[in-house]
Amino acid sequence: QKTIAKIATCLELRSAALQSTQSQDEFKLEDLKKLEPIAKNILTYNKEFPFDVQPVPLRKILAPGEEEHLEFEEDDEEGGAGAGSPDSFLARVPGTLLPRLPSEPGMTLLTINIEKIGLKDAGQCIDPYITVSVKDLNGIDLTPVQDTPVALRKEDTYVHFNVDIEIQKHVEKLTKGAAIFFEFKHYKPKKRFTSTKCFAFMEMDEIKPGAIVIELYKKPTDFKRKKLQLLTKKPLYLHLHQTLHKE
């Protein structure tokens, strides 16, 4: 278990190196390749680990919808039943953005820049990121789910992302009543898992070039948009900027 946790640390270091704009790679591909024989012989590996790293703390990253069954008590910091148990679900690592689709004549592609989100406790959020999905009226995925990298910075009542999301379907091919969802997630150390804090969504008639601000709603994420409750009476929003690409 400790070796797997150290491998996880190395993967995070490699991920950080790939996302860094600095020229020096802190954790190179050759380093990563040294982990392959360890991973292949994980049950029998008993040599010293080749890198001096601390194991990643055990985290439970829940797939969409799973946290709904675990934690309705947002402020109960003792943790829900089983919330911190070590048998983690499959981890979804933040930072799974996809490239823009090839253009097609007469078809429109949508790029959404997630600028920032306003939250009264923005500074307290640990490793915040946003999961973006496109759902039909029944909450079924119409495109692959994407996670942003962890936020760039936290400032006053804002968490800043400034990241582009390429919607993985031409606008004309999205079904009537579809919506684009943005779930704000953050790590909760006392419960030892990543939780959805709030969500926002954008409907098809809101797809137009330029800036847009959309309201934040209380979790659990309601993909069918039937029982929506605003997160707060305060004017807090998700700030987006849309760009339409037409061939």
UniProtKB/TrEMBL annotation:
SUPFAM superfamilies tied to this protein: Domain from hypothetical 2610208m17rik protein
A Pfam family the protein falls into: Aida_C2
Keywords on record: Developmental protein
Molecular function terms from GO: phosphatidylinositol binding
Annotated GO biological process: determination of ventral identity
Keyword Transferase part of the UniProt annotation: no
A cellular component annotation (GO) from this entry: membrane
Ribonucleoprotein in keyword set: no
InterPro entries: Aida_C, AIDA_N, AIDA_N_sf, C2_domain_sf
Annotated ranges, domain C2 Aida-type: 98-245
Function: Acts as a ventralizing factor during embryogenesis. Inhibits axin-mediated JNK activation by binding axin and disrupting axin homodimerization. This in turn antagonizes a Wnt/beta-catenin-independent dorsalization pathway activated by AXIN/JNK-signaling.
Family the entry assigns: Belongs to the AIDA family.
PANTHER family with a match to the protein in the record: AXIN INTERACTOR, DORSALIZATION-ASSOCIATED PROTEIN
The protein's name in its UniProt record: Axin interactor, dorsalization-associated protein
Species assigned in the record: Struthio camelus australis
